Amino acid sequence: MGHHSNWPEWLYIGVIVALMVWVGAEAWNVERLIEHVPADAVVIKVTGQQWFWTFEYEDGTKEVGTLHVEAGKAYKFEVMSTDVIHSFNIHDYVVLMDAVPGRVNTVWFAPDKAGEHDIQCREYCGLIHYNMRGKLIVSEPST
Amino acid sequence: MGNLLGLFLVLAIIVIIPTIDHVFAQADEPGEYIDRRVLIWNLFFKMMTVAFTVGAVVSGTMIWICWRFRESHPKATPTAYEASNTWGGPA
Amino acid sequence: MVLELQKPRPIWQIMFSTHHTDIGLLYLILSISFLFMGGALALIIRAELFFPGSQIIDSMTFNRIFTVHGTTLIFLFILPSASAVGNYFVPIMVRYKDMAYPKLNAIAFWMIPPGAALVWLGFADFTWYATPPYSIISSPGPAADMWIFGLKILGISSVLGAINFIVTIMKCKHPDMSMGQLPLLAWAFLTSSMIIVVAIPTFAAALLMLLTDRLGVSGFFNPAMGGDPIAYAHLFWFTFHPEVYVLVIPAIGMMYEIIPRFSRKPIYSKSSGIFAFVMLSLVSFSSWAHHMYATGMSFTEKTVFMIGTLAAVPASGMHVFNFIATMWNGRIKFATPMMWSIGGIALFFSAGAGGVANAAMPLDFTTHDTYWVVGHFHLFVMGTIAFGTIGFIYYMFPYVTGRMYNETMGKVHFIMSFVGAILVFFTQHMLGLYGMPRRIFDYPPIPEWIVGNQIASVGAMIIGVSMALFLYNLIYSSAKGKPADIHDPFGLGGKYYYPFEAKNPHHN
User: Fold this and answer.
1) Distance from C-alpha of C258 to C-alpha of C392, rounded to nearest angstrom
2) C241: enclosing H helix or E strand
3) Digit-coded pLDDT (tens) for C138-160
4) For the whole prediction, is pTM greater than 0.80?
């Protein structure tokens, strides 16, 4: 079967395996860091339904479509759905988590400066999926 | 050879600096949380640097092979198998 | 030779035939027809997305179109075109007179038109994944139910075809031939058929569960009845991640026929090719939940599936190495089939590189369900599989028709499709990084999104024009092409072809 020297192929496979190990290790490390939710994160309940987002803050107030947070604080989102699967996404802060009926998924972030960002749905949910959008408003720290 | 050295230097730096950084990384404190955007996009750009480097090597090799071993190349010679007519059929 | 348009055979003779060459021809005609129908849907999608706002269709129509586009091109183009090549060539490669079960072969083929009719007449809107709860509570029937029945039939057809290939290759091969002497294309059909037999039954179960949930008699995916929508995702992806390897492995096998021949050299390492196919088929079962990273899986689960995904890369890499090493020191003739195969390998590599970015768990947060994924998988299905298949269609053209296609037109087709594919799919990677989600009929007027969509749409139109050239070439050359030298249609000068030809009982 191998009537010619095969060392180039073995070297090539060795390089690929080394690269894949490196990719895996780096990815594992970053994921470990970003999944660690700070203990003092403020909880916000996010509910997705066809075709809008509702946000409930710790004090019980609710907002539809717009999310207000403060720069410099950590926020933990508890993402839920009342009908079909949606996906809560703040692309500018790389926040992404599916809203699945029957379960609560968690994702956290800490915005660092004031601004306005888009919220969108990233899982097909029907007729108005394309316009299931919202606004994230990050205000200056109040203290 | 110099280019290869430069390439390895770039790749080594991409790996070593974040590792050292990680060793001195701090725990979360109010107001100083990790920024997930920064971590994720940094990882992305590292991956892309490696991917494009490997891609350049693979596609460069393919382009060179297509140029050098085309049948119209002045130095094109029949392969050993053509001359002996031993290749052909299923095995 | 089975298609001689200047002395046509009665159409019923081809339609009722059980000979592998006729069934191969039927699969070929069906798959090429659906390539064009699915491609036309893609052009409608790209035309609509050229500007923000509604151009030519509304949201529900758009959702139906992308669902049928994906379903058609996977189940009605890629799988049947692989069956076309396999049916025509596997008996030749194993030196047997036909497939193991010729009548079953015909039945498997004829199940496809009813399945296709159900999908097209229904025109469901729930994406080709049919994810619940949307597909259960929100997707309008009867389209949804027709899609479910259609896919049931197509799945059964696939399994019957796979059984036929496995038995033909393993039990009907010539007694003088060992497994190691089988051509790599035969190994490709063997390994992909094995994956089908293991993976498809899971989806058959999922479809049945979806149907009973829709009818209200069960609650497998309904939390209110104790079920879980994520269960469907597991069942679906347990089938369809290995299934994407079922799609790609035959195309790589086709490249293993073309690249050595047109380099006038045998393959660099046949044993590596066999090993890589077998390993790919096994490892394909270890990565399915990388499609589910955003559903709320635990860190450990995600890590396990990331490792399973990355484990497939060396096997794919072995094929790329094999092709490059085969071409090295060859004397390459750049006829149309060779150009398509080499272009296919270049795009295969880019697809894989982008896939590694998806596999890295945190990067999935940037790319999941955006146009990055669309660009990535299209580089596989169009850039590798369609390119390899189209190249092989050009290669088998003289065998099927006895005539040669127009070579210049074939080369122009390749160049336009290659440029078009880069314009569409590389741009879509960028669109994904800018955050554009999948499956949206309209988008806000973000400048980067508008420019990206316009470039992609132009690329798609270029591909569309080149495919029109392809159709013209196929039809005109079948009737009026120059008669081909059946012993060396491509002028490679040597004994590169199988020394035995298929003997159709109705023909010659």
Assistant:
1) 7
2) helix C229-263
3) 888 899 999 999 999 999 999 99
4) yes
Among candidates B76, B77, B81 on the partner chain, residue whose Cβ is nearest the Cβ of C265: B81
User: Long-range contacts made by residues A98-103, C-beta under 8 angstroms, separation at least 24?
Assistant: A98/A123, A98/C294, A98/C295, A98/C296, A99/A46, A99/A47, A99/A48, A99/A123, A100/C229, A100/C230, A100/C295, A100/C296, A101/C133, A101/C223, A101/C229, A102/C223, A102/C224, A102/C227, A102/C228, A102/C229, A103/C223, A103/C228, A103/C230, A103/C296
Determine contact, residues C93/C150, Cβ cutoff 8 Å: no
Structure tokens at C277: 């196919």
**ipTM, interface predicted TM-score of the complex:** 0.94
Contact C344, C320 (CB under 8 A): no
Distance CA C36, CA C279 (A): 34
| Fold (CATH) for C11-480 | Cytochrome C Oxidase; Chain A (1.20.210)
Among chain C residues, the shortest Cα distance to B70 is held by: C332
Q: Sheet holding A115-121: strands in order across?
A: A66-70, A134-139, A115-121, A86-90, A95-99
Closest residue in B to C500 (Cα–Cα):
B89
Q: Could you tell me how many residues make up chain C?
A: 508
Spell out the domain ranges in chain C: 11-480
Task: List, for residues C16-34, the tens digit of each pLDDT value.
Answer: 999 999 999 999 999 999 9
Coil, helix or strand at residue A119: strand
Rounded-to-integer distance, Cα C382 and Cα C80, Å: 15
Q: Are C506 and C19 in contact (CB under 8 A)?
A: yes
Neighbours of chain B (3+ CB pairs under 8 A): A, C
C343/C383 Cα distance (integer angstroms): 8
